[in-house]
Amino acid sequence: MSHENRTCSTSVARELALWVDEVHARTLLAVAEPRSDGSQDLAARVAEAEQRRRGDGIGGFPWFEDGVALDATQLEFFWMAAAYSSDPRIAVHAEALAGPLARRGVTATLHARLFAPGGESGRALTVWLAQPNPFTSHGLLVSADELVTPALRPYAVPSTVLARLRGHDVADPAIRAHFTADELIFDEPQRRVIAELRAALSPDSTALVTLCGPLGAGRRTALAHAAGRPLIVLDGERSTRSRLAADLVALRREAMIGRAVPVIADVETLLDDDRRALVRELLAGMPGPIGVVTRDPAIDLATERPVIRLQWPAPDTTSRRRLWATAAGTGSSGAELDALAMRYRVGPGTIASAVRSAQTLSPTVDGAALERGLRHNIAERMGGLARRIEITQSWDELVLGDDTLDQVHGLVARVRFAHQVLETWQYERKLGRGTGVAALFSGPPGTGKTMVAGLVARELDLELYQVDLSQIVSKWVGETEKQLARVFDAAEEGHALLLFDEADALFGQRTGEVKSAVDRYANLEVNYLLQRVESFGGITVLTTNLDTNIDRALKRRLAAHIVFGAPDEDERATLWARLATTGAAPLATDVDFDELAREFAHMTGANIRNAALGAAFLAASTRSAEITQEHCHRAGRAEYRSMGHVLAERRSGNLTGRKS
């Protein structure tokens, strides 16, 4: 809080104390008036309190601009309500004077009795309170009962306003003040955006300034820096449906009190049908410029204000390096900070959160701790919509045909050498909007599609996040797209590979014959996905068992379509050998992998893995010293039955394992 604001708060708190003394004395006098004993002393006490207040008070209302006209009666009513809300003794006397309604606040009738008995001011005040006025529109006074006759309608001062009057810096839960830092780090593209923001946020502007960009990129700091004054931010994620109207009033009030720029963050979360009108009403009635922070560049607030829409770019690598160094201090080496800056395209907010998490996790904030902190924050950003997959397999366990393996290596090369090909050799000019990589892995179940996605992520030193379709898909129109946007934004910042298993559930063919609203919105979802995959700067892997169900337009956007076929006999034998052998398992010398490959001709890699693991458990359960051919046959037959194959009966202790 600035020195000017602290001085103002002190004078307001003194004014409140003087009004409490005066209103308390007036209520005492009004209660005692029918009796003669002591009334003269009380009248003298009222006169003394009024004289102190007039001689030492601030003489007006400090929070309103000079253009707001208030007469003495209107100011008296507000301070009377503030005194009533501040001192319980006044409420007791008010109830004795005005009856049960006075338990809920002060009324114009009670004000007239205390301050202007027999005058006309009570009627004028009643009319003024029944209309929109500065106190009620800014939430400084709230009516406890709108259904009561205006003259008897009780008004009170909210607790947050009362705390402000007492000199405490308290705001509503969904409202946050945001100040500029002393040292700010911006690159050249960001400075160009700030120059445009500075003109749009000048005090005489009435513009709606929309700043688009990912979470944690420093959008609020940029707005505050450009405005040259604090922001008062309403966080759309924190404002509940039932509280939105009150939060919007609080935003107006706190912006007025703090001489700050009002900002709505994550406004896209507030634009459903029943809340859009409230936001539009705030935009229409708020003086001066208003800021909006959003991740959606196509957000439409349907306002009559002039709209300035700007995109906030992520900081470049050099700026990220300086941000990491400033936030992390001296615990990390220069090489570690260089690696973090190169790998993660994050802004100052995300970096600060990662440093705080690292400090919580480890006493030494080195590069490894910072990376762990960043991963925790990225997982939090995913919000349960995607889960991180720990990659335990290696390339040695992978068995694929030569052509398929070449395609996988080509996909890795496309990512690893993207900088050289796209930027140095300038092939980026030949592309569309995005430089990301989307790949489709198709083929029967168990052929290694998900495993290869994990190995690609591991080879490229990426995090692997599997999208949870049960959490993504929603019956509400537009909600699926919002959830997907959240996942893509977090993955782009977090240097992650996104895996969509069973992708045909989301990326299905669009229908040409729209017969219902369901068809239309299903088409819209696929349209959004196609655009988002194309503009995504990272890696997206989609797996499916039914590639014919994938929309044809998506296939044109793919960097690779790799078809995983069922393994042939030699590949099955290799799979048996690699999946049954661990280096520690007591595998018998009589195990014939070629025979197992011939015996179970319809198994894929996943089936063979299950059978090999089942054989190990059979050996352990029988306390056998070795895992034998018999154990492998028994486990193979069990897996074959689970696959739906009919097996011949066992003969003379041998297992045939053939399909009948």
Structure commentary:
The protein is of the alpha/beta class. It has 27 helices and 14 strands. It folds into five domains: 163 residues, no CATH class; 137 residues, Rossmann fold; 66 residues, no CATH class; 169 residues, Rossmann fold (3-Layer(aba) Sandwich), CATH 3.40.50.300; 74 residues, Orthogonal Bundle (Helicase, Ruva Protein, domain 3), CATH 1.10.8. Helix 3 crosses helix 4, helix 5 packs antiparallel against helix 6 and helix 24 crosses helix 25. It is elongated. The chain starts with a helix and ends in an 18-residue tail after the last helix. The C terminus is likely disordered.
Note the topology.
Elements (H helix, E strand, L loop, with lengths): L2 H30 L6 H18 L15 H15 L1 H11 L9 H8 L5 H10 L3 H4 L4 E2 L11 E2 L2 H7 L9 E4 L9 H13 L7 E5 L6 H9 L3 E5 L8 H14 L3 E5 L7 H13 L4 E5 L12 E5 L5 H12 L5 H10 L4 H14 L5 H16 L3 E3 L13 H15 L1 H7 L12 E6 L6 H11 L3 E5 L1 H4 L6 H15 L2 E5 L16 H19 L3 E6 L7 H5 L3 E4 L5 H12 L12 H7 L5 H17 L7 H14 L18
Parallel strand pairs: 4-7, 4-8, 5-6, 6-7, 10-13, 10-14, 11-12, 12-13
Antiparallel strand pairs: 1-2, 3-5, 9-11
